[in-house]
Amino acid sequence: MTPLLLLLACEGPDGPGPGVKEDERDTGTPGIAATPDGATPQVDVLVIGAGAAGLSAALEAWRAGASVRVLEREEDFGGAANWAGGLMLFSGTPVQVDAGVADSPATLLAEWASFTGGDPVDPWVMSFATQNVPMVHDWLAELGVTWNGPGTDASSGPTPRVHEVEGGGPALVAAIEAPLDGGVIRYGAEALEIVRNRTGRVTGVRWKDRDDDVEHVTYARTLIVATGGFMHDLERVRAERPDLADRDLRYGSWPGADGNGLALVEALGGATENLGAVGLYAHGVPAPGDGHEELLGSVLSALPWFNNLGERFADESEANGFATGQARAEQPDGDAWALLDAPTAGTVVFDSTEPDGASLSFMELDAAGLVVHGADLAELAGALGVDPGTLATEVTAYNDYVLGRAETDAFRDSRDRTRTVMAPPYYALPIAITVAKGFGGVEVDLSGRVVDTAGAPIPGLYAAGELTGMAGGSLVGDYGFTGSLSAVVLGGRVAGGAAASEALGD
Ligand SMILES: Cc1cc2nc3c(=O)[nH]c(=O)nc-3n(C[C@H](O)[C@H](O)[C@H](O)COP(=O)(O)OP(=O)(O)OC[C@H]3O[C@@H](n4cnc5c(N)ncnc54)[C@H](O)[C@@H]3O)c2cc1C
After folding, report:
1. pTM: predicted TM-score of the whole model, two decimal places
2. Separation of 53 CA from ligand 1 center, angstroms?
3. Per-residue pLDDT reduced to its tens digit, 367-381
4. Is the CB of 351 under 6 A from ligand 1?
């Protein structure tokens, strides 16, 4: 094979150093550059990604006495958390005690399978149950984070344990970043490749300065990859979930969740788990245009939904629950609509998912061709190709429940936040299938070390965050859970502490 020589600038904590030559022949793995023998580590712990996981890892390592460097390709820290409302899951906090809620690791474990499909004796699930308060809640509280709650939703179990960060996701990451020395994060630095030496030990990262396109290598004693999930790579999502292959999927993640870090780790033989555990929502409509965006509409949860058989199929009030999202995705031919009548249509507003995006009124949705009309239910059913008799029966039963004429509903267990649909004309809005969060990913052991497909740790390599399916690789079974930022912070702290310990020879 022709030797491929790369001339790279070698960047240390204090700026670019002398050039080094890289020889890709020696690792035996195509595409993975070898570290020249004798290359000196420039930092103890190198982190890729300054999201909630990478920041938690960096702070933990830095407080343990390690020198730390974070490579972040954007010009700001925070990643997905900058888009997030900041719901977190804890079991046994002062906020819960004040609200008279009895919760504990044992209670969380007892309920775990019911709302995640996960295995309560999985070591990472047990670790999450026992550590979410001391390692995450108490640590963040000490950093100044405060929460409202506790609340309950479809994906958090029957015990109220959803805590909402005051100030949302941006306040969370700002609190974790604040203690770090300003120079720790190198912005505009895009990791391209993980570097190993001849023994297979990870020794650094080849990265590109996005300002001038110049490539560098930073050598480190240990590396933590915290590059986020792959939910914005819809092709990969479809590959992991063949049942979604022909569905119109919409983004519920942020653009940075492109899965590039997954590819970096897979190139080294890192194992993955549970990649099909894709958290789906049904809380919006497809945005007009050719893209994969959605528009969020809280009104959807107060309306009846139906499929192309004219049948209801899920508890619409749980639009932010992963079980309802999955039920939406399973409908025949991928079709499902929310039913509106004239009074409701007049009040509808759908919001952009972009942090500063504009909202659209019903009139604007209609002008964009998103709304199907019917002077009565039969005409609407005809326009959609839905059986009119089935639709009429379903709508009558739904209205009877909302009005209290029927005691039970086929799906809902509360009349809260429901609206009758009785005043023509009628309208149908398509319900999007929204790809939100990745609950499978790179497999790591309880120290955050990436393991290879044979189950052995890859020397020097750690991972954390949504890249690891929030933590560990396989916290859940079929569904995700609300408040997984708690697991993201836990995984970051675990990896940061263990990487620092290894680097410092503790
Ligand atoms: C709209 C929205 C709302 C949400 N709401 C909630 C919520 O209420 N509760 C909850 O628990 N979760 C929520 N989430 C999910 C949660 O925000 C994420 O799971 C979590 O923030 C992921 O953190 P992370 O650090 O693992 O990854 P990320 O936040 O994606 O961070 C990864 C970082 O790595 C950087 N990076 C990636 N590749 C490279 C590279 N090659 N080189 C250098 N840097 C790189 C990225 O720029 C980014 O800064 C929400 C997500 C979205 C999009």
Report:
1. 0.92
2. 8
3. 999 999 999 999 999
4. no
